[in-house]
Amino acid sequence: MTCFNNSTVSPGRHLLPAALAFVCIALLPRHAQAAPYRPASDAVVLATVPAGTRTATAGPRDLQSVVARASEDIESARASGDPRYLGYAQSALAPWWNLKDAPLPVILLRAQIHQHNHSFEAALADLDHAVVLDPRNPQARLTRAAIHQVQGNYAAAIADCRSLALLVEPLITADCMSRVSSHRGVARDAYRKLLAMRDRSDGMEPRQHREVELTLADISTRLGEIDTARRHYDQALAATDVDAYTLLTFADFLLEQREYRQVVELFERHPDYADLLLRAALASRATDAGNAGQLSQRLREQYAAHQRRGDFVASRDYARFLLDIEGKASAALDAALANWKSQREPADALIVVRAAIAARQPAAAAPVAAFVRGRGLEDVRLTPLLKQIPSERRT
User: How would you label 8-26 residue by residue, b for 16+ Cβ within 10 Å and e otherwise?
Assistant: First the structure.
């Protein structure tokens, strides 16, 4: 799972405005355009709101105040993983939400909300417009690069990363370039270049330090250099306060190393991070823990609630739930393939291939295998599994 987080570039350095641009695939649920769900009675529980969560209220209407408020809400969504804050941000931007020629700060914030709701085409349309309005806007370039990477459009992502060279600090450009190029057959070289740039950088801002360490950890993991990856994760966790993305990627790393007790402890220390529930359920199931059934049931209820509300779309995590907890390989394959249409990260490829093998439908994963092979994507988790996937037939 890869996340671009541009919050590391401060406006005080004349680089990015306070608004954040980031893509974190783990934020759930993904929102579909559907008719609103109307409960049959007042007794139906739609969601349990955590203590301290505010409700959306009428707010300021002047542009500067609205942008500041929406930016704070998007930052809260990034840090907590709670998508309710994105709704607050959208509510604040309501007067400009449907305006094609909205002010640039609104366009940039609107693009971030679209990308979190996995409305990538709407996000790209806003970002393309932002680049026309301000060709030297680094936030628009970083956000667009992030979306292109998630979609597997690496050439476009690299082009946006290169355009940053004269706009931001060298380490930010290097991080952007390494994230993308590490998916194009040069992962080890991308790692070395970013590591060298990190070591030459003085006084890294804590969040930038965390993002660089997460990039290095991701590349190391895909190369199979687990001890190195663990050191980078440790440094990322120590760099600044943890956020949802850091916790989720670290939990997934621990699961892959079968460090199940640490996954459960992570969940117990951070129970408010909803997406850690899946990781804790997987860890408890792997160890036959007494609460495994309870955690799995909580997940079922969580997904069922989203489906009732009509705001649920199959995701990578949902495919993992179906495959590894429910044992429904065919349904997991359907969910993973639906997710693959818009998200093409290594972890998205992995769940498709795993589900296809488990469902005894290896040919279903042939297009995914062709994508991985065609781009030279290196990932030791995928390599042995791809041997069981036939090459895509040409007609």
Answer: bbeeeeebbbebbbbbbbb
Distance, in Å, from the CA atom of 218 to the CA atom of 220, rounded to the nearest integer, reads 5
**DSSP assignment string, 101-151:** T--HHHHHHHHHHHHHTT-HHHHHHHHHHHHHH-TT-HHHHHHHHHHHHHT
> pLDDT tens across 293-315, in order?
999 999 999 899 878 877 777 89
What DSSP string runs through 262-305?
A: HHHHHHHH-TT-TTHHHHHHHHHHHTT-TTHHHHHHHHHHHHHH
Ranges of each domain in the chain? 260-310, 314-395
Q: Is 74 helix (H, G, I), strand (E, B) or coil?
A: helix
> How far apart, in Å, are the Cα atoms of 374 and each of 82, 190, 212, 330, 369?
36, 18, 27, 26, 8
Who's near 180: CB < 8 A, 6+ residues apart? 145, 149, 154, 157, 158, 161
Question: DSSP character for 323?
Answer: I
Rounded to whole angstroms, the Cα distance separating 350 from 370 reads: 13
What is the pLDDT, as a whole number, of residue 273? Answer: 87
Place of tokens 């946006």: 160
Average pLDDT of the chain is: 86
Distance (Å, rounded) from C-alpha 197 to C-alpha 178?
11
Kindly state the tokens that stand for 222.
């895909």
The residue among 342, 299, 304, 341 whose CA lies nearest residue 320 is: 299
